[in-house]
Every structure is written in C-alpha cells, then in structure tokens.
Design a protein that fits this description.
mainly alpha, Serine Threonine Protein Phosphatase 5, Tetratricopeptide repeat, 75% helix, 0% strand
C-alpha cells in the first residue's frame, strides 16, 4: 500500500471520529433540551388561594423573611387585584420593603396605594409609614454603631418626614398613629431648625449676611416652638446690622426682648 493511500485512510478515520463526536453532542443536547421541557419548574404558590397567600406572606413577615414576604404580597396583588386582600397586600408589601431596607421601593408602593385608594380607611397608616421610611432613611450600619445627629443625615428626606407626619396629624387627629407622629414632629422640628441655624452660621463666617439672614428667617417661619428659634432671632439681628438695616434689626430685637429678655440684653 502506498504512503498516499495510508494517509488518505487515516484522514478518513479522523473525519468519521469527528463526525461521530458532533452527532453524539447534538443527540445529547436534544435529549437534555427535551428533558428540561418535560419537567418545567412549577411555582408552588400558583395553586394557593388568596387567603393562603396572605397567611403565608404574613408568616414570612413575622419571621423576618421580608424578601419572601414581598414576593408573596406582590403575587397576591397580581393574581387577585380585586379581592379583599389586594389593598392590604399593597401596604404590607410597602412595610416589608421598608424593613428590607429598600426605601425607594417602599415609597413607591405607598404612593401607589394612596393614588389607587384615595378613600381608604388605611390612609392614616400609609402616611405614617411614609413618614417612618423618610425618618429612618439615610442611616447605615455605621450610624447604628456610632449614632449621629439626625441633622447630619439626609435633610431633604427629614423634611419630607416632617411633612408626612404633619399631614397625618392635620388630616387624622384621632388616628392611633397621631400620638407617635407628634413626638417625631417635635424631634424633627428641633433638629431641622438647628440645621438651618448651623447653615446660617456658616454663611456668617463667610460674611454672606443676606444668605445668613434668610436661613435664620426660614427656621423661624417653619419651625416655631424649637429652641433654635432664639439663635435664629439673634442671627437676624446681627446680620441686619451688618447689612446696614438698623430698623430691621430693631424689629427683631423687640421680638427677642418680648419672648427671651435674658438673651436680648447683649444687644442693647
């Protein structure tokens, strides 16, 4: 047999081997695909009734498994949007998002509930929960270990919390959540007022007298009842004098004398 013939036969055997491997891979792949089609994954929750889904979701919430609770509440709302549990599922999903440290999702769920259920008897709770989400937003594990003043956190969200709780107090004075909301409003009033005063002092250090005056005026206007109002009045007196407005300074001094005479003595 010639060398050329031997080489041809060797090449032919290799070709058959490669072809066999390709065909085998295709067959195995087809079998695997067919097998996966024959045994699709079935969500066990699809067979549950609304009552069963709600009960299971509540148990997940109570055990602290908020991720599962969120999934179950959203499944419940999607499958039974007109059922008796739909509204409650929206609110409880929002609470689960809040506890799962997903504040944006919690706020979205609350706002959607308010839009879809403007006459609900649970609006007071929705406002209260919204306030809680904003009140606690911005804190981290570091803040839990080394607590900071609330005035150092996300001021925008704290102002939103102040508004949420204030709306609850005004719209639902007899709500079971109003008492706690009042305490939180007072706390927020004080810390937000001091935040404005601190900004005003920052401007004073840079001799930005008008900016300092305006921040102090904002604190007085929006956070009446806070001890920081005294500092704000003093800032307005100083900055008015610096801007060459003695009459404006005198008017604010009169207010200070009428309400806090001991603090007004140094300006006479």
């Amino acid at each position: 047999m010639s060398i050329t013939t031997k080489m041809f036969k060797m090449h032919l055997r290799r070709s058959y081997t490669v072809l066999f491997a390709v065909v085998l891979a295709m067959v195995l792949g087809a079998c695997s695909s067919q097998s996966s089609k024959e045994t699709p994954k079935v969500d066990p929750n699809n067979s549950l009734t609304a009552d069963q889904l709600y009960s299971k979701a509540q148990k997940a919430t109570k055990s602290g498994d908020y991720k599962t609770a969120i999934s179950l509440f959203e499944t419940l709302e999607a499958r039974f949007p007109l059922g008796p549990y739909a509204q409650q599922a929206q609110l409880e999903a929002a609470y689960a998002y809040y506890k799962y440290d997903e504040p944006d999702s919690a706020l979205d769920a609350i706002d959607r509930f308010v839009r879809m259920n403007p006459m609900s008897n649970k609006l007071d709770y929705a406002l209260y929960l919204r306030g809680l989400v904003n009140f606690n937003r911005g804190s981290s594990l570091v803040d839990k270990v080394f607590p900071r003043s609330i005035a150092d956190l996300d001021i925008v969200r704290q102002k939103e919390a102040f508004q949420d709780f204030s709306t609850l107090i005004n719209r639902f004075p007899n709500s079971r959540y109003t008492g706690d909301a009042k305490q939180r409003v007072q706390y927020l009033r004080n810390t937000l007022a001091y935040s404005e005063v601190n900004v005003a002092k920052y401007y004073m250090e840079r001799e930005a007298w008008l900016a300092a005056f305006n921040r102090a005026e904002y604190a007085i206007k929006h956070y009446q009842g806070s001890p920081a109002v005294i500092d704000a009045l003093e800032i307005k007196i100083v900055t008015a004098r610096k801007m060459g407005k003695p009459d404006l300074a005198a008017d604010n001094l009169k207010v200070l004398e009428a309400n806090f005479p001991e603090r007004a003595a140094k300006f006479r």
